[in-house]
Every structure is written in C-alpha cells, then in structure tokens.
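Here is the promised in-class demo. Please do not try to memorize the tokens; focus on the logic of going from shape to residues.
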C-alpha cells in the first residue's frame, strides 16, 4: 500500500517536474515569442518610419518634379521669346537688306545720273570747243579763198596764164583743206552721237594703203616728199574700210604737213597672233615733249601750222583715236623734236573665227 502511494507520489513528482519543465519551456517560448513580437513591432515601426520617409521623399520628388515642370515651362517660355526675338531680328535684317539694296539701287542710279550729267557737261564743253575750232579754223581758209578769188576777179585781165593757174591751184588747195576739216568735224560729231555705222570686214592692208596714198600723192609731190610703203601683201585686218581710210588719211597727211621739203614718210606694219601694229613715220620737225601728252586731248587741241604754212586743228587725231578705239585698238606716238615722229596704232587681224561670225 505504501509502495503504491510512494510510486504514485514519484509519478506525480516526475509529472510535476515534467509539467514544470514544460511550463519553463512555454515560458521560454513565450518570452521568445514576446521577443519576436517586440522585434516585429520594432520592424513594423521601422517599416512605418521608412514608409513615412518614402512618402516624404515622394512628396519631395513630386515637389521637385513640379519645380522642374515650372522651370521647363519657364524655359519653353524663354525659348518662345527667343524664337520670336530671332524672327523679329531676321525680319529687321531682311528689312535692312531690302533697305540696303534699295540704297545701292538708288546709289547706282545716282552714279548713272552723275555719269550722264558729266557726259552731258563734256558734250556741252566739246560743243563749245568745236564751235571755237570751227570759227577759228574756217576763217583762215575762207579768208584765203575770198582774198584769192577777189584778186583773181579784179586782175584776171592783167594776169598771164601761169599766174591765173597758180591762183586757181591755191584756191583749190584752200578749198580741199576746208573740205577735209569739215569732213573730219562731221565724222567726229556723228561718232559722238553713234550715227556712224561700224562694219568690220576682211581687208588687205597693203591695198587700202596703196589706194589712200594715191589720193595723197599730189600733196606729197608738192613738197617733193617721198612716201615709202613697207607692208606685206598677205596681211589682212578685220576693220571698217571707211574708218581705216580716214585714219590713214589723217596720219599720212599730218606726216606730210610736218615734214620739210625733200623729206620722207614711211608706213610699216608688224603682225602678231592677235593684231597688227601700223606705223606712220616721218623725218619732219617732230613734237615737243610738253605737247605729246596733249595730242589726243580734246580740251588741249589747237591750230598748228605745217612746214609750208599748212593749217590744222588737231581734230583729225581725235578722229583717229575714236576710230582706232572703235576697233578695240590703241594709238600712240613716239617723237623726238627736230628729228621726226612715229604714229602707231593697232588693228585686229582677220581670222577664220571672225569669218564664221
């Protein structure tokens, strides 16, 4: 009996120990659980804290985004203002370009108007000069014509045939000089007004020179002046025949006029690939250095007297210059006072290309 009680008591003790052990384990587990709960609470608090921080960060981000949007809108507004300003600038620049073009146009018109005015003034000056030349240079030959005619009329019955023939020759020479002056004057005025036609063609330079010299032979013979022609037969020029004859007539007659009796006048031609240089040379009285530069200046021309008292106005040289330049050539003179002069001018040679045109 006792043993039974003792055994149950031991079992109860063991069971109670087991229970106490389980209770301790539960307490430990409960503490562990409480610890885990506390950790979870702390974690949740940390999570909520992080969530709050994220909310704040998101709000800050949204705020920054809003600021960037506002800044971008401001930037777009400034860009739009710059675009408008640039368009306005380009518009102003275009207006300035148009205004400048208009200014340049007006300036060009003023330049043209000024050139036209200068040409008109020059033409007016030239006209006055021509009137002066005409009045002066026609007076002498007409006085000679009138004087000789009057003497011949008054004394024709007293003069023998030789004297009458001499008077007639003088009258003829004076009339020819007057006619030549009038012809040059009319040609020059027609050139200035563009009324003389320019019709260049293939011309044999030697043939034209021979033809012109035949008409001047009488004048040369009167002073016993020899005219020499040194031009190859094969040289062909592309020139206006009337203008070329006028150039040769003036230059050769001038050479005769300013060459002493028994002198010589020579005509040369030198050909190159583009043009021909024609020279009219004499061994006459020559030209003073201070007058060389004035020969082709209309404002400087003046009456000159030849070695046999022939008259001349210098108008023929101006006409030569006009006609030579019409052919796109040039004219110049080399002279030594007391030894003679060499007048040179260029003319284009005739080519197959010109023939086709």
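The designed amino acids, position by position:
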């Amino acid at each position: 009996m006792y043993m039974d009680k003792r055994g149950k008591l031991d079992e109860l003790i063991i069971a109670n120990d087991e229970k106490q052990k389980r209770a301790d384990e539960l307490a430990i587990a409960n503490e562990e659980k409480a610890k885990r709960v506390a950790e979870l609470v702390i974690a949740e608090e940390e999570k909520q804290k992080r969530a709050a921080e994220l909310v704040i960060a998101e709000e800050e981000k949204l705020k920054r985004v809003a600021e960037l949007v506002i800044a971008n809108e401001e930037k777009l507004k400034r860009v739009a203002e710059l675009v408008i300003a640039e368009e306005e600038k380009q518009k102003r620049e275009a207006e300035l370009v148009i205004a400048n073009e208009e200014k340049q146009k007006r300036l060009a018109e003023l330049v043209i108007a000024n050139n036209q005015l200068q040409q008109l003034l020059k033409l007016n000056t030239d006209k006055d000069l021509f009137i002066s030349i005409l009045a002066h240079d026609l007076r002498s030959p007409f006085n000679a014509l009138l004087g000789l005619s009057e003497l011949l009329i008054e004394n024709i019955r007293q003069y023998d045939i030789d004297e009458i023939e001499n008077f007639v020759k003088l009258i003829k020479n004076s009339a020819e000089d007057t006619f030549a002056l009038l012809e040059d004057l009319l040609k020059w005025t027609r050139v200035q007004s563009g009324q003389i036609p320019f019709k260049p063609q293939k011309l044999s330079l030697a043939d034209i020179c021979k033809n012109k010299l035949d008409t001047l032979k009488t004048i040369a013979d009167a002073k016993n002046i020899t005219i020499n022609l040194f031009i190859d037969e094969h040289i062909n020029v592309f020139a206006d025949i009337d203008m070329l004859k006028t150039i040769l007539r003036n230059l050769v007659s001038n050479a005769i006029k300013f060459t002493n009796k028994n002198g010589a006048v020579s005509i040369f031609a030198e050909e190159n690939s583009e043009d021909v240089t024609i020279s009219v040379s004499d061994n006459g009285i020559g030209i003073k250095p201070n007058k060389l530069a004035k020969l082709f200046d209309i404002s400087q021309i003046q009456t000159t007297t030849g070695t046999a008292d022939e008259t001349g106005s210098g108008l023929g040289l101006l006409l030569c210059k006009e006609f030579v330049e019409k052919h796109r050539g040039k004219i110049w003179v080399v002279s030594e006072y007391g030894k003679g002069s060499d007048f040179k001018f260029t003319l284009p040679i005739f080519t197959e290309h010109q023939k086709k045109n």
